[in-house]
Write a structure and sequence with these properties.
Layout (H helix, E strand, L loop, with lengths): L13 E5 L15 E7 L5 E10 L4 E5 L11
Antiparallel strand pairs: 1-2, 2-3, 3-4
């Protein structure tokens, strides 16, 4: 994932991915990774800016509300 200014605030956000709950034992090629972007302050503290599921085959993504971050799985 590329780092980019995902929320338009002029600060480059750092991208990452994680495996959703329930997919820990799946084959790597089958895992529907959830992507996230975080911003970091000068003291190194991070804050998640956005989380989303991206379907690269069908070319769409769904933004996950901040109150759901870390609590979503894909079926």
């Amino acid at each position: 994932m590329y780092s980019k200014d995902i929320n338009g605030d002029g600060v480059t956000d750092v991208g990452g991915m994680y495996i959703p709950k329930g997919w820990e034992d799946a084959e790597f090629s089958q895992i529907p990774f959830i992507e996230f972007y975080s911003t970091y302050s000068i003291d190194g503290a991070s804050e998640k800016v956005e989380e989303r599921f991206t379907d690269r085959v069908r070319r769409f993504y769904i933004e996950i509300p901040s109150t759901w971050h870390g609590n979503v799985t894909i079926k």
